[in-house]
């Protein structure tokens, strides 16, 4: 259990998420993430020189990745100080781990204020050539960073969607159940768009994206969300033979970034948009599911976090998850005694896309805002990650 790490209210942001090969497709995500975070800090009158350390969470290589963390840190503070940084890659739970790393360093007194910057661009991913001198004719091996890794875990030997189907088969889940949860998440996302996107505007920051040498655009809204209906979902066929997940019941690659300030209680109160709202990072959980059953991972991670916080499911005001496949929430709800229709108000990554590094961060920003709107209490974030791993974080808002 953590007792000393806090996030100032409104000390976080997420950009909208752009569809794969969409508006953000040509920007270096390291540069876009760092410059966007700097603009957000400036707009909100946060002094970037307050940071003692920065974490760069990124999962898909960009040009200059070798220097990515130090380069991003320099851009974040616009050269105003020499800010050290660390590069973090934990696939879909990268945001969670960056926030937790900052929190643990606050807890032990290593520094006062850290910044977690998470960014990714699934679009135009790198195509890597590996030397293969012992192969036939010494011909090289190639790897498409995103598609090849989505389609084969070298340990489990399966596509990600096949690991989801493994869990669905074991639980006895039907296509109709997956479609129903997908439709529910889409309806919840529509709540986030109500009243001119009032909920999203509580945490969302529009980035300036360069389209060409002469043109830039401001991205105000998510890009790539597919209109969804019960009839439309019913017509779609499962992707895998004998499976239950259609293309509608799984997420899609996207681009975006997000950032979080993590600091002490006193500093959080000093820079908070509302000193009366306190956001404490309480507990972290982690797990690894059995081989080829990735969607099961969030349950033991959540149970570990709940135990660390000393609370039960019934004490939670809200739950947000990374849901790459419909089965994730169906399984979690069944095993933890939750109502699958209650989870993930205002939508989640199943609907608005999955840039990997910043996905959990956006989920968490939404979680914090939802719990604030509910008058405070405990909130849980949980999600799986590539390789059958998972993580969870519990926050207390008061």
Structure report:
The model has no long low-confidence stretch (mean pLDDT 97). The longest helix is centred in the middle third of the chain and has 23 residues, at 175-197. α1 (29-43) runs parallel beside α2 and α6 packs across α10 (326-336). The chain is globular and about 55 Å long. It is 33% helix and 22% strand. The strands form four sheets. Strands 2, 3, 4, 5, 6 and 11 form a six-stranded mixed beta sheet that branches. The chain has helices at residues 29-43, 68-76, 94-107, 147-151, 160-171, 175-197, 230-235, 265-271, 298-309, 326-336, 349-352, 359-373; strands at residues 6-8, 12-14, 18-19, 53-57, 85-88, 113-121, 127-130, 141-144, 208-210, 216-218, 254-263, 278-288, 316-322, 377-385, 389-397. The protein has a domain at 160-201 and 278-397: Peroxisomal Thiolase, Chain A, domain 1 (3-Layer(aba) Sandwich). With 398 residues, the chain is an alpha+beta fold.
